[in-house]
Amino acid sequence: MKTSNDSFNATLDTANQLHRSTLRLLRLLRATRPANGLTFSKLSVLGHLYRDGVTTATELATYLRIQPQSLTRLIADLERRKLIMRRENDADRRQSLLEITDSGVQMLLEDIRKQRSMLAQAITESLTPAEQGILRLAAGLMDHLGELSEASNDPAKQKRDEASEGS
User: Fold this and answer.
1) What does the pLDDT look like over 122-160, one tens digit per residue?
2) Distance CA 112, CA 82 (A)
3) Are residues 48 and 64 in contact, defined by beta-carbon separation less than 8 angstroms?
4) Quick one: average pLDDT of 60-85?
5) How many whole angstroms separate alpha carbon 47 and alpha carbon 87?
6) Quick check: 100 and 60 in contact, CB under 8 A?
7) Alpha-carbon gap, residue 129 to 132, rounded angstroms
């Protein structure tokens, strides 16, 4: 008879394997990046600006979970490459707003296309149709786990939840 401890240990084994596999896949994707391409951190900045729109450096640093000082170099390089631009914040003139440029959108989308094409080729060449179906299911489950994690770690959502609890 399985105990709850056995069940937890099996789940922990699954979590360990998922973590290892995710890191290996991430290393593979990073290794296939062009030498003159953008780092994962810079692509994360572009991706956030593309998905969520104009933001401040402070909000961006919070999202990326890095110190604002660390973000300064990323922003400077992306701005130098004309992939993002700063503009004045009319509501608070002490802050700048960051937004992705058309060139930044093009570079981000091209990078995503290349990475996904490379991954699709590896899937097609390495996995059977049945394994590909299982991988589709696993990808959906990983998305679900990621959504749960993002929701529980989103400072803006936490503030909204706290405000609604106080009402």
Assistant:
1) 999 999 999 999 999 999 999 999 898 777 766 555 554
2) 19
3) yes
4) 93
5) 19
6) no
7) 5
37-108 topology per CATH: Arc Repressor Mutant, subunit A (1.10.10)
Q: Is the pTM of this model over 0.85?
A: no
Task: Report the half-sphere exposure of 93 (CA within 13 A, side-chain side).
Answer: 0
Euclidean distance between CA atoms 136 and 96, whole angstroms: 41
* Spatial separation of the C-alpha atoms in residues 83 and 98, rounded to whole Å: 10
Would you give the end-to-end CA distance of the chain in angstroms? 47
**Please, are residues 70 and 77 in contact by the beta-carbon 8 Å criterion?**
no
Confidence of residue 70 (pLDDT cuts 50, 70, 90): confident
**Nearest residue to 104 via CA among 147, 50, 63:** 50
Burial of 74 (0-12, 13-18, 19+ CB in 10 A): buried
The first and second tokens of residue 27, run together, are: 């290393």
Question: 148, exposed or middle or buried, with CB in 10 Å at 0-12, 13-18, 19+?
Answer: exposed
- The residues facing 94 across adjacent strands are none
